[in-house]
Fold this sequence. Notes:
homodimer; Translation Initiation Factor IF3; four-stranded mixed sheet; 2 helices; elongated
Amino acid sequence: MSExxxxxxGNKPVMNYVLACITLFHGGAKEVNVKARGRSISRAVxxxxxxxxxxxxxxxxxxxGIGTQQMAPREEGSTPTNVSTIEITLxx
Amino acid sequence: MSExxxxxxGNKPVMNYVLACITLFHGGAKEVNVKARGRSISRAVxxxxxxxxxxxxxxxxxxxGIGTQQMAPREEGSTPTNVSTIEITLxx
Lengths: 92, 92
């Protein structure tokens, strides 16, 4: 699967990411990965639910994966911090 | 599965819920459901990752489900709001 079919969730409004997902599916994508980390994880779930329930009812959730990513320390000598991640794979 | 094997994530520190999960597994539970909604969803993922990576490496994620729950309107006549939910099933 091409990495271009990913939507990385940040701090923008939910509808921005919903539109990004819809655009990918309308462009012919069979799969779209919605990825987020840290506090954006709950927004990623919001995005997927809005896409499925309001716009593309035929889209299914194929897989939900969660994990941990180690962030590089901000300063020399400080300990690295962990951040939780989620990856939700949608298929049309 | 008994409904008592659920940990509902709220606004307390992550370690409170981690301890709740560990206590259930140590008490003989084969499955524990970690549930959250709205902004607590990212904390639910944190809880699961800490349980698995720091305390109980044998615990597996059996299933991750996401959904939408309709909240009753706060005032008469106002529209109901939707909130996203997550349910992560862990098994030992």
